[in-house]
Amino acid sequence: MTDSSPAAAAQAEAAAFCDLHQRIRQEVGRVMVGQADVVNGVLTALLAGGHVLLEGVPGLGKTLLVRTLGEALDLKFSRIQFTPDMMPADVQGTQVLVDTEGGGHELQFQQGPLVANLVLADEINRATPKTQSALLEAMQERQISIGRRTIHLEEPYCVMATQNPVEQEGTYPLPEAQLDRFLLKLLVDYPEENEYRAILERTTGSEDAKVSPVTNGAEIVRMREIVRSVPVPEIAMNHAIRLVMATQPNRESNSAMVRENVALGASPRGAQALLLAGKVHALLDGRFAVSTDDIRAVATACLRHRVMINFHGMAEGFSADQIVASVLDNVPAAV
């Protein structure tokens, strides 16, 4: 006799979620070496229904990771290599003149690469603000408006963007409004010494790793529904709210570190990101409820791109990660 209680159903959903996560991770691991936190973060954004920004110097596998993930998912995947001369029509789509039977011509709309399920926006900070803005509607509203035409994007929809944090020539930093649309910002660091051997063996040998689809859009959508159904106790929700409010420099109750060095703190989207990513973290731990530890575990990835350092903070050499760390120290989990 099977147990049909709500607790058993929740446990079964958590197990199904973990199983799918493990299948995708295992398939991506055929190509990717290391970067476990980055892979987990990318999958968190995908399964939570958000977008992710990957930041790191060239050659660390940012593009490879997203492309491999595209191969592991039976979804429509597209890659956009942003350049300063790219126009919004290049990514959204445009009217083209085509030949018809009988020697005539007619205008037909040709969809751009934004019309997909998984979009790799490579070197997004090389696009001009005009082209960057073309992403805003797609990321927030899941639709594209071109003239009088509105294209509703098929779910699941996820934008995974990459950028180089060092090279500034020919780049256009993302505005705060667009940064806020990303659920997570992940920093891709250099591999460990023991990982270099595996990287070199996989990339300089004669055999190419093969990646096969292990899931489809319907299953991803179902996992997103499971994430949304995870309950958030009041103590965890209050903790997320307090963390977000603690990043805002206009509050006298906040620490001097924040008031003196932060120009702009996190908005309610930051609290939304904490709860959604916290739900994924709880499911991966086999639990069907969010704890304050889940919120704290995802806080840096959720808030680092929502905290803007002012001139004083930049002069003192503070980073957004240091500000978030100080907020975590000043906001105890038990309160």
Care to describe what's here?
The protein is an alpha/beta fold. It folds into two domains: about 230 residues, 3-Layer(aba) Sandwich (Rossmann fold); about 110 residues, Magnesium chelatase subunit I, C-Terminal domain (Helicase, Ruva Protein, domain 3), CATH 1.10.8.80. The chain is built from 14 helices and 13 strands. A five-stranded parallel beta sheet has the order 3-6-9-1-10. Helix 9 packs across helix 11, helix 9 runs parallel beside helix 12 and helix 11 crosses helix 12. It is globular. It starts with 5 loop residues before the first helix and ends in a 5-residue tail after the last helix.
Features:
335 residues, alpha/beta, Rossmann fold, Helicase, Ruva Protein, domain 3, five-stranded parallel sheet, 47% helix, globular
Radius of gyration: 21 Å
Multimeric organization = single chain
Number of helices: 14
Order of helices and strands: HHEHEEHEEEHEEEHEHEHHHEHHEHH
CATH architecture of the largest domain, please? 3-Layer(aba) Sandwich
CATH topology of the largest domain: Rossmann fold
Average predicted confidence as pLDDT: 87
**Considering DSSP H and I runs of 4 or more, what fraction of the residues is helical?**
40-55%
Q: What is the CATH top level name of the largest domain?
A: Alpha Beta
Question: What's the total count of β strands?
Answer: 13
The fraction of residues in strands falls at: 15-25%
Q: Decide which structural class fits the backbone.
A: alpha/beta
**CATH superfamily membership of the largest domain, which one?**
P-loop containing nucleotide triphosphate hydrolases
In one word, what is the shape?
A: globular
What distance lies between the first and last C-alpha atoms, to the nearest angstrom?
43 Å
* Number of spatially distinct domains: 2
Low-confidence stretches: none
The major pleated sheet works out as:
5 strands, parallel
How are the strands of the biggest sheet laid out side by side? 3-6-9-1-10
